[in-house]
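Please fill in the sequence for the structure shown.

STRUCTURE ENCODING:
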């Protein structure tokens, strides 16, 4: 029986090659799309899975309330980790790490920047870091010890088998002795480092780390296997205040499994949102695209039901029960699904390299993975069952008496189902088109937002060696190149949020309502170099010493200080009082979607970390970099020339949104393509069924245009209904998405109209091909008797 069914399936497939191709190709595209998405989802969900203690590891975050709103930061006070380990039951171990990115050199003229951190020795045990040389117990036995990764060891020492005891220099000043080599951390790990040095080094240089109100460290926590995380969080709620009543931080722990996907906080509580929203979104899109592809199969199978009516009748007369017919048709569906899966896997293999470039990952098909093989089997069965279920039930219901008497098979139910499925296909496709356009417009809206400074032709260079001391000569040398328009020094990168404090007061300030203020130490040229705007008062004088007791503030800070001009008002710090001499127009930093915190600028070039260079607008970037690099190397030969373009840093902040926009666009296009393949097949079938009618109409004088319109209008009506359903659905969905951003676009009516017109145009082109072909056919052939 199986052999008979297989023979029948192959014969039908060969006899109806066009429809077979549309079925298999449409389904394979859907499977390829879903497969790529599922590979990406698997990679996202496997983040941090390489750590054996994943379920016990937490990161301490810090809640602080300003102006009635609780905000959550990922930096914590220095004493928090040791105190938690000593005083809170269930805390097995803690580890403090710094934020750092220093320069390492092997003692020669060449060096390289390597990302690393100063950390407590517990770093190795908490994260179960694997040592290939040395061991965790002795790693930080000496103060100037350093543990490096295999990649870093190879960079500095080549293929040398044992590098324990070798020396590295940090900032060409301090010698560090290699005490261990660990395996490189996987790319899908939140913890990333090339080296680790004892935290004690960092603590000795920063005495303020003992202050419970100074938040500048990452704190990792390992709980005991049976510890209750909620109980520990409850103890943490007022833990800092028991140590220092004036400190405002209230720590909260976030489990490692949520670091990457669910790290979003709202009003001090974990919201459950974050990157997981995109994972859910594309998981849904994957299943929807599979469903659209399955709908094609169902539509084409039921549309061609009359072609198989006699086969069903014969089989029933010969004793075939309905259940065996259902098994046959579902078996055919699963067979076609298996062929589609095979073609889909081939498409995935071909598309993986460009897809990896798009998502910036190294995904592999991984057919040796049992889970992947199980997924392939599941997709084959699911697609086969979903796509074949309705056709099997419908075809197996034919009455053999009606079939052999030549009575017209009543297909109103099937026709209604086909039309409903076409409407569903195009509804989903139109929603995806609208969503793609709105996501793209939102990203572009933010990118084109008035930032309050000019990010173009601007780069920052880390200050190393004697660059601060030699800045006047470096600045002059850069200006003499002819490619540099201006330069400045700053402590903080322009687009980042850091160095915040509540430690300022002024006349009229409510001391019971802390205000979070960002502090910016800059050189006097900073405002001009960045292209910021002084809206009131003056800029800093060229001699920073003359403005050592003066400050500039942003407009938001001026509004906080009360009505009237802020010029001449005094701002009190912890040790000194400053006079406001100028107001700078608000600029965007930190949360690029939101509203900026107030900022105070200090003329303090001695306490800075970055050199900003503004190149001339018409200068070739490559030529400018060569000349700038030559100056930096001449004045600072012990360090490599390292730089970042500010517009690149800015664009990098939109990686997730840009990726979502691109993927949505790609999958929306493929959803339309799959839908059109089905529409093409249905149009071909409709034209075939109405061959004689078309012939008669042509003989009676009907035009090609009239016949084309006759055959096309029913399909266009279905697409129009899809638009009516899709537009409010897309509007509601995207309105909810946009509400997550404080600064967002308004949804324009033309987006919906354009999406509707595009879908109608695509459907018209798809259907018209078959309609025109039928209208141009010779009526003599269509009216010829059998």
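FILLED IN BY: designer on duty
SEQUENCE:
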């Amino acid at each position: 029986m199986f052999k008979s069914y297989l023979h029948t399936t192959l014969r039908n497939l060969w006899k109806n090659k066009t429809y077979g191709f549309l079925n298999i190709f449409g389904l394979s595209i859907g499977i390829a799309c879903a497969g790529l998405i599922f590979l990406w989802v698997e990679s996202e969900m496997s983040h941090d899975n390489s750590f054996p203690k994943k379920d016990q590891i937490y990161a301490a975050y810090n809640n602080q309330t300003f102006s009635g709103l609780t905000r959550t930061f990922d930096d914590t006070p220095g004493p928090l980790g040791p105190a938690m380990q000593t005083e809170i039951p269930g805390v097995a171990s803690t580890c403090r790490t710094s934020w750092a990115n220093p320069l390492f050199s092997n003692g020669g003229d060449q060096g390289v920047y390597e990302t690393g951190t100063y950390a407590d020795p517990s770093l190795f045990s908490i994260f179960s870091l694997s040592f290939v040389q040395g061991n965790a117990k002795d790693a930080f036995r000496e103060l100037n010890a350093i543990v490096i990764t295999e990649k870093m060891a190879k960079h500095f020492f080549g293929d040398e088998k044992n590098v324990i005891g070798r020396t590295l220099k940090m900032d060409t000043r301090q010698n560090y002795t290699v005490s261990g080599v660990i395996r490189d951390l996987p790319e899908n790990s939140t913890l990333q480092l090339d080296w680790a040095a004892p935290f004690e080094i960092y603590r000795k240089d920063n005495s303020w780390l003992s202050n419970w109100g100074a938040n500048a460290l990452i704190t990792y926590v390992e709980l005991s296997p049976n510890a209750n995380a909620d109980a520990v969080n409850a103890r943490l709620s007022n833990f800092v205040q028991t140590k220092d009543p004036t400190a405002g931080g209230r720590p909260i722990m976030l489990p490692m499994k949520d670091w990457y996907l669910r790290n979003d906080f709202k009003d001090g509580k974990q919201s459950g949102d974050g990157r997981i929203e995109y994972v859910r979104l594309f998981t849904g899109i994957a299943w929807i695209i599979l469903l659209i592809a399955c709908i094609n199969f169902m539509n084409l199978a039921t549309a061609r039901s009359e072609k198989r009516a006699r086969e069903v009748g014969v089989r029933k007369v010969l004793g075939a029960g309905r259940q065996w017919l259902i098994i046959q048709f579902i078996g055919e569906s699963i067979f076609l699904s298996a062929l589609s899966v095979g073609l889909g896997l081939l498409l995935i293999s071909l598309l993986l390299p460009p897809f990896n470039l798009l998502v910036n990952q190294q995904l592999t098909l991984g057919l040796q993975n049992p889970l992947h093989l199980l997924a392939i089997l599941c997709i084959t069965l699911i697609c086969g069952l979903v796509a074949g279920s309705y056709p099997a039930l419908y075809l197996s219901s034919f009455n053999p008496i009606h079939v052999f008497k030549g009575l017209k098979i009543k297909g109103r139910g099937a026709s209604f189902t086909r039309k409903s499925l076409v409407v569903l296909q195009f509804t989903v496709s139109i929603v995806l088109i609208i969503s793609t356009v709105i996501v793209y417009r939102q990203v572009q809206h933010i990118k084109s937002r008035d930032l309050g400074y000019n990010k173009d032709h601007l780069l920052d260079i880390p200050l190393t060696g004697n660059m601060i001391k030699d800045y006047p000569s470096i600045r002059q040398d850069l200006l003499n190149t002819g490619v540099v328009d201006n330069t400045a020094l700053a402590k903080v990168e322009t687009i980042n949020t850091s160095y915040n404090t509540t430690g300022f007061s002024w006349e009229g300030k409510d001391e019971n309502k802390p205000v979070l203020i960002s502090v910016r130490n800059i050189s006097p040229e900073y405002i001009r170099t960045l292209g910021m705007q002084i809206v009131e008062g003056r800029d800093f004088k060229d001699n920073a010493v003359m403005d050592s007791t003066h400050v500039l503030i942003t407009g938001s800070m001026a509004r906080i200080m009360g009505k009237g001009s802020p010029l001449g008002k005094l701002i009190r710090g912890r040790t000194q009082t400053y006079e406001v001499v100028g107001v700078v127009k608000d600029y965007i930093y930190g949360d690029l979607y939101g509203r900026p915190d107030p900022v105070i600028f200090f003329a303090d070039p001695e306490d800075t970390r970055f050199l900003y260079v503004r190149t001339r607008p018409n200068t070739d970037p490559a030529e400018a970099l060569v000349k700038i690099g030559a100056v930096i190397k001449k004045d600072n030969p012990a360090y490599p020339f390292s730089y970042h373009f500010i517009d690149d840093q800015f664009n990098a902040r939109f990686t997730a949104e840009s990726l979502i926009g691109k993927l949505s666009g790609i999958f929306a296009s493929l959803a339309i393509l799959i839908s059109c393949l089905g529409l093409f097949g249905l149009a071909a079938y409709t034209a075939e069924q109405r061959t004689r009618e078309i012939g008669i109409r042509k003989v009676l004088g009907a035009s090609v245009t009239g016949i084309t319109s006759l055959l096309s209008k029913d399909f266009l009506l279905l697409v129009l209904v899809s638009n009516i359903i899709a537009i409010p659905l897309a509007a509601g969905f995207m309105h909810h998405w946009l509400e997550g951003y404080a600064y967002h676009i308004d949804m324009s009516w033309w987006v919906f109209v354009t999406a509707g017109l595009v879908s109608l145009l695509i459907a018209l082109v798809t259907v018209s091909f078959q309609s025109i072909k039928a209208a141009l056919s010779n009526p003599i052939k269509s009216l010829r008797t059998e």
